Amino acid sequence: MITAPLRLRQAVSPTDIDPRSRQxxxxxxxxxTNAGGAAGFPFPPIDAEHAAPALDAIIxxxxxxxxxxxxxxxxxxxxxxxxxxxxxxPLVAHWGTVHHVQSHPHARGRGVGAALMEHARxxxxxxxxxxxxxxxxxxxxxxxTFYGRLGWKEIGRWPGALRLAPGxxxxxxxxxxxx
Length: 179
Prior knowledge:
Layout: E1 6-11, H1 19-34, H2 48-60, E2 67-74, E3 77-86, E4 95-103, H3 112-127, E5 132-138, H4 143-149, E6 153-165, E7 168-178
Parallel strand pairs: 4-5
Antiparallel strand pairs: 1-2, 2-3, 3-4, 5-7, 6-7
Helix pairs in contact: 1-2
């Protein structure tokens, strides 16, 4: 479990991310990916040049009604983050998606991911007015169990949708959280 106080901070605008925070987010994404985490880059190793364009797109798209970044800090160090996004198209504007859920490798197993997901639930419901959250998880990594403990339900699978290497096909697991 978490030993120092965990501070959860959300960004709702590009101006909420200062250069130090951007670098910490980038470093975390690289470290998580290179440790085998399923956070958006399936083919490690990567470096900052790989992750920077994707991170910068997330940051530039931040807006209180459609896109938020939630970060967990412990003793001044970033220990995890995730991205919540909704499509503004009226047909689907009542639900959002959670992307890039990650806990830094040195912070795994201490409740960081669960704290991020629980806080994301409240942000989505209470601040963004969403009724559902969706996510897609890589099968075979134990993620279905992790999310299931947090109230998420598996609603479908795309068998063998993700090819990590020859002979290593994984399901993409579709999950739903009713808010």
